[in-house]
Write a structure and sequence with these properties.
The chain is elongated and about 90 Å long. A hairpin with a 4-residue loop joins β2 and β3. With 278 residues, it is an alpha+beta fold. The chain folds into two domains: 157 residues, Ribonuclease III domain (Ribonuclease iii, N-terminal Endonuclease Domain, Chain A, Orthogonal Bundle), CATH 1.10.1520.10; 100 residues, Double Stranded RNA Binding Domain (2-Layer Sandwich), CATH 3.30.160.20. Strands 1, 2, 3, 4 and 5 form a five-stranded antiparallel sheet that branches. The two termini are 49 Å apart. Helix content is 47%, strand content 12%. It comes from Rhodotorula toruloides. This is Double-stranded RNA binding domain-containing protein-containing protein.
C-alpha cells in the first residue's frame, strides 16, 4: 500500500485533482477491484489465499496496483506526494470509486469514507486494468491523470524549498550561560548562585534517560534567601541540563510548573523568565 505521509505538496495536489479533466474510466469484466472481503464473508487476511485461488477482492489486487503504479511514476522528487494515500484517495473519490465499493452492510459506510480504503480501490482498479486491457490502456489512463499533477507537485516543492531558504534559522538562546552571567552581575559574590547537581541515569541501555537538578539561590532585599529547585530530563546529560523545570511542594504550583514544562521546557529558560532576563 502506498505511504500515507503528508507533504508540502498535498494542498496543491488537492486543488489540482479537484480541477482534473478526468479520462473515461475503462469498463472491466471483473468487479473484484471494488469487492471487500466482508462482502462474501471471506477470511480478512489477504495472504491466506490458497495457491491457484481466483482473485475475488481488492485487498490482494491493491498490492499489484501499488507496484505497477510506482513503476509508471518514476520522478523520485514527486513520487512520495503523487503516490501518497491522500493523493490516491482524492483521485479515487473524483473517479467515483468509493461509491462502488461492495462490502457487508455493517461496514460499507465506514469503509467508503476511509481514505486508505479509497486509495486501495484506485490501486486495485489499476491492477485489473493492466490485467484485462494491457499495458497500453493502463499507461494511457495513468498518464491522463498524472501528467497534469506532476508540474503542480514540482512547483509546490519548489515553493516550499524557496520559503525554507528564505526563512533564517534562529540560533537557540544559551539560557544556561545567561543564568550563569546573572549570578555574577551587580551583586556581591555569593549573593546569587546557580548550581547543577549530580546527574542520574535510568531507562534502557540503548535509550538512556538522564535527570539533573538545578538549584538557584538569591538573597532578597530583606536579607532572606530565596531557593528554587529545577529538575530536567533528557537523552544526554547536556539535554537534561537544558530541559529542566521548576519543582514545587504544593500541588497547585506543581501543576503550573508542568504547564511551564509543556510550553517552555528548560530550567534555565524558566529561571531567566522569572528573573526578567528573557
Amino acid at each position: 500500500m502506498a505511504s500515507s505521509d503528508s507533504s508540502p505538496a498535498l494542498p496543491a495536489v488537492r486543488d489540482a485533482v479537484a480541477q482534473l479533466s478526468l479520462p473515461t474510466v475503462p469498463q472491466l469484466e471483473s468487479s473484484a477491484w471494488g469487492m471487500h472481503t466482508s462482502f462474501r464473508g471471506a477470511r480478512h487476511q489477504a495472504f491466506e489465499a490458497n495457491e491457484g485461488d481466483e482473485i475475488l477482492d481488492y485487498e490482494r489486487l491493491e498490492h499489484v496496483g501499488d507496484a505497477i503504479l510506482g513503476a509508471e511514476v518514476t520522478l523520485l522528487i514527486v513520487k512520495a506526494a503523487l503516490l501518497s494515500n491522500q493523493t490516491l484517495a482524492l483521485i479515487s473519490s473524483r473517479l467515483g470509486f468509493p461509491s462502488q465499493l461492495k462490502a457487508s452492510a455493517a461496514q460499507t459506510c465506514q469503509l467508503r469514507t476511509n481514505y486508505i480504503v479509497q486509495a486501495s480501490l484506485f490501486e486495485a482498479y489499476l491492477a485489473l486494468l493492466l490485467i484485462e486491457k494491457g499495458h497500453a490502456a493502463f499507461q494511457a489512463f495513468v498518464d491522463a491523470i498524472y501528467a497534469p499533477l506532476v508540474p503542480v507537485v514540482v512547483e509546490a516543492f519548489r515553493s516550499a524549498e524557496s520559503a525554507a531558504i528564505a526563512t533564517p534559522l534562529l540560533e537557540p538562546a544559551n539560557y544556561v550561560g545567561m543564568l550563569m552571567e546573572w549570578t555574577q552581575e551587580r551583586w556581591r559574590p555569593g549573593r546569587r548562585t546557580a548550581t547543577f547537581n549530580s546527574s542520574l541515569r535510568s531507562g534502557l541501555d540503548h535509550k538512556p534517560l538522564w535527570s539533573i537538578s538545578c538549584e538557584v539561590e538569591q538573597y532578597n532585599r530583606s536579607g532572606t534567601m530565596d531557593v528554587r529547585v529545577y529538575v530536567g530530563f533528557g537523552s544526554t546529560v547536556a539535554e537534561a541540563k537544558r530541559e529542566c523545570v521548576g519543582v514545587s511542594s504544593t500541588p497547585q504550583l506543581v501543576l503550573m510548573q508542568m504547564i511551564d514544562l509543556f510550553f517552555a521546557g528548560s530550567a534555565a529558560f524558566q529561571a531567566c523568565v522569572e528573573l526578567g532576563l528573557a
